[in-house]
Amino acid sequence: MKVAEILRNTKKTLISFEILPPLKGDSIEGIYRTIEPLLEFKPPYLNVTYHREEVVYKKHESGLLERRIVRKRPGTVAISAALHYKYGIEVVPHIICGGFSREETENALLELHFLGIRNVLIVRGDPDKSTKTFVPEENGNNYAIDLVKQVMDLNQGKYLDDDLMNSTKTCFSVGVAGYPEKHPEAPNMRSDLAYLKEKIDAGAEYVVTQLFYDNQKFFNFVDECRKAGITVPIIPGLKPISVLSHLNILPKTFYIEIPEALEKEAKKCKTNDEIRQVGIEWAIMQSKELVASGVPVVHYYTMGKSDNTRKIVEAVF
Hints:
Blueprint: H1 3-9, E1 14-19, H2 29-39, E2 45-48, E3 54-59, E4 65-70, H3 76-87, E5 90-96, H4 102-114, E6 119-123, H5 144-155, E7 173-178, H6 189-202, E8 206-211, H7 215-227, E9 234-238, H8 246-254, H9 260-267, H10 272-293, E10 297-301, H11 307-316
Parallel strand pairs: 1-2, 1-10, 2-5, 5-6, 6-7, 7-8, 8-9, 9-10
Antiparallel strand pairs: 3-4
Helix pairs in contact: 5-6, 9-10, 10-11
């Protein structure tokens, strides 16, 4: 079933989980160990992230640097298929602009279509760490809106090769990302919402938000979306803090704020176990308030760990 249909038909708040592909060299067994303790809560679908290639520089004895492109987390398409057929659950692989030409993107989408996977989450993706600014691949998509349009073209049977005859239409349901605290590259929230509405108008059917720790920011974001004419379901994304370094890493990585109350409680902790418990309790509080507000789904970023997410879900659902 398509995620958009699930959202239209639900009469209660559902849960979904997002997982990371394993690092190159690791097996899929770690994914299974992460997911299986969460499946008893009957999530209607799972998200599988996609990470672009990374550039690394290897120094030779001569002093010269060799530039290498590596993929540290390959396998999103294969993992999505494995989860879909092993557990009989819908999956939502992420499709990104960064690192892919439009032809490579089309091929990945067709592979998903052949596998019976009908849902994708479209994001532009992060810039190359070596450049710190986003540069598309040659003949690649520059923005998420371009990628949404490419998926919609495939849904209409429009392929990159104009000479194809009687091309098969795909039938993807598309979700896109939203930012309660504004995308870091957007000049202001009004501009950010205008870009989001373009993606909805192009065919995206729901929004999943960046992680946040202040529910009021999410509620304000939803209000502003509605004022801007964005009427699709908006799904809040949560990630519990688990180590003290998250207080500094998360704001720099995701351009978000940590509420003073959460920072204060975390700094009282003597061990990471204590901080982990603070993170669980904060996420429980957030989840309960979000469920009470009637959100269609609460989406949890597991980051490859399920023990704290499990405790949160047990306490709320």
